[in-house]
Amino acid sequence: MANIVIVFDSLRGNTKRVVDCMNELFTGAGHEVKMFKPKEVETAAVEAADFLLLGGPTYHKKLINTMEQALFKLEKANLEGKPGAAFASFGWSGESLGILEDTMKNLYAMDLKVDGIKVKQTPVAAKVKKEVEPFVEKILATL
Ligand SMILES: Cc1cc2nc3c(=O)[nH]c(=O)nc-3n(C[C@H](O)[C@H](O)[C@H](O)COP(=O)(O)O)c2cc1C
After folding, report:
1. CATH code given to domain 3-142
2. Closest residue (by CA) to atom 27 of ligand 1?
3. Rounded to the nearest whole angstrom, what is the distance from the C-alpha of residue 9 to the centroid of ligand 1?
């Protein structure tokens, strides 16, 4: 059983839908999932993760501000070589994914095992699942 940690934020529920779907899929595969909003991030829990996922939406071509703050907080954790991946919810451009991946690679020296995904905004959980399932399967194959 792997210990999967997800740090994310969501203003209008779309990124949260992605996280709920990942939680269901990882838990269903027998893994433990811990989820943190930026203000709740626990450095020790993040350092103890077997796989670390960071996710957030794009607003005005940028990563959401609270996730920027989480990235500063995570700089204090030792994440060198930590397996991980990023995900994003977006409407039309989705810059948040690249910002997260750049930071994970260049600042934290994490090992991005799987290319991140951009999930198009939708209130329909089944559509989210269709996009998220292949991403989760790729991650499961690395655990
Ligand atoms: C004011 C505003 C600005 C936005 N700017 C962008 C943008 O620059 N690029 C983009 O891809 N999506 C943009 N979006 C769409 C959001 O990224 C999308 O709705 C996303 O699913 C929101 O995630 P959340 O519900 O988790 O907050 C914008 C949405 C709003 C309301």
Report:
1. 3.40.50.360
2. 11
3. 12
